[in-house]
Amino acid sequence: MKISVIGTGYVGLVTGVALSDIGHHVTCIDIDPAKVAKLRSGKPTIYEPGLEELMVKNIEQGRLFFTSEHEEGLKGSEVIYIAVGTPQREDGSANLNYVEQAAIDIATHMTNDVIVVTKSTVPVGTNFHIKEILHQHKQHDIKISIASNPEFLREGSAIKDTFEGDRIIIGTEDPQTADIIEAINAPFNVSVQKTDVLSAEMIKYSSNAFLATKISFINEIANICEKTGANVEEVAKGMGFDKRIGKQFLRAGIGYGGSCFPKDTNALVQIAGNHHYDFDLLKAVINVNNDQQRLLIDKIIDRFGSIEGKQVAVIGLAFKPNTDDIRESPALVIIPELVNLGSNVIAYDPIAIENTKKELTVDIEYTDHLDTALQNADFTVIITDWPEIKHINLKRFEDLMKQPIVFDGRNCYNLDQVKNTTLEYYSIGRPNHIPELIG
Ligand code: UDX
After folding, report:
1. Which atom of ligand 1 is the closest one to the Cα of 151?
2. Average pLDDT in the 263-271 region?
3. Ligand 1 centroid, distance to 383 Cα (angstroms)
4. pLDDT band (50, 70, 90) for residue 67
5. Fewer CB under 10 Å: which end of the chain, C or N?
């Protein structure tokens, strides 16, 4: 099948590469010629484990192409995926400018019948709006069908999630279109649900909103655990044995970030509001997350009172491990606050420093050497549970820091491990470890 993908962000690039790997002829289109030049040489523009190998292989085997020219990229395609960004507007709603432009580009250039598949997360009803644009702008008497095929991949495990996904959702207006999209995806061997367009769009938002709800729920339980003396990890484990609840997404921490949960939860509140429905539960989920992101600051102030002039090691900038994405990362909330409170911050991350520099205006030091960050620190704040942080020998905190005081926003260490050290250790929803020797 000859396929085009518009947009080479996380979703577009991974979709294009994966579709080429299962045998389709795929052209990925991006308006940025510099990006296209890099992609053509087999270099991904995002950090994603396993992506580069697949790109190189499929470019070499003549199935994967990149272009910044719509005419060239769309020519002769039978199926076109829209995978452009839908950033959040000030009011929380999704900005559809890029999606609309993609629809205009498709309509202007297509000369044959085509199926337009939307991968981007778009508010319920948008696919019909896309259909209208396609029909308004088409230049030839061609048949254009639409499909909503939302993406569920996670950053950092995008390739695995695509090849081993839990489900593929295909929302169409007619069974023939659904059958074609199903056939395209057949080699992935993932369960398919064929449904209507509006429900497919809603499945994406409600899935992300539900997962965000699970996280805010366990974070509130963690906060209550701290007050009652219970341990949230024991509680989550006990809850997770119940198959109706499930073990996943019950890790307490300093809140969810990333490009999806914050944006999609806000958008769903908006979508509900547009239909005069007040989504109280989801609003609470968002508020809990906003508070949770600054929880460590409260713990730090409780411990020190003033942190004026203190040297702070901030460990991890990315919103989660295995990605250089810092969008909505708690780091962007915590670091400016630490600086405002007068401390000197040195931040460590293995790959997310460049992205952070573009975003953060406060004056801090950066390092990609963990030991440099820890050296002489008055206290450490763990924001991302990178494997090298989770598996660090705790003695390094003791040896390198001025005082081994650690505020761990990701519960990286088990308390039995910490018990045998001189670490003063504060985590989320678990008892603090304060050795008597340290005052
Ligand atoms: C998410 C969805 O999982 C994916 O299906 C959708 O397509 C896009 O949004 P992603 O944002 O890449 O994917 O990351 P994910 O691994 O789901 O984590 C999201 C955030 O939740 C991270 O900040 C993570 O630290 C946090 N999280 C996750 C928790 O705090 N606790 C958990 O138990 C799980």
Report:
1. 7
2. 95
3. 14
4. very high
5. C
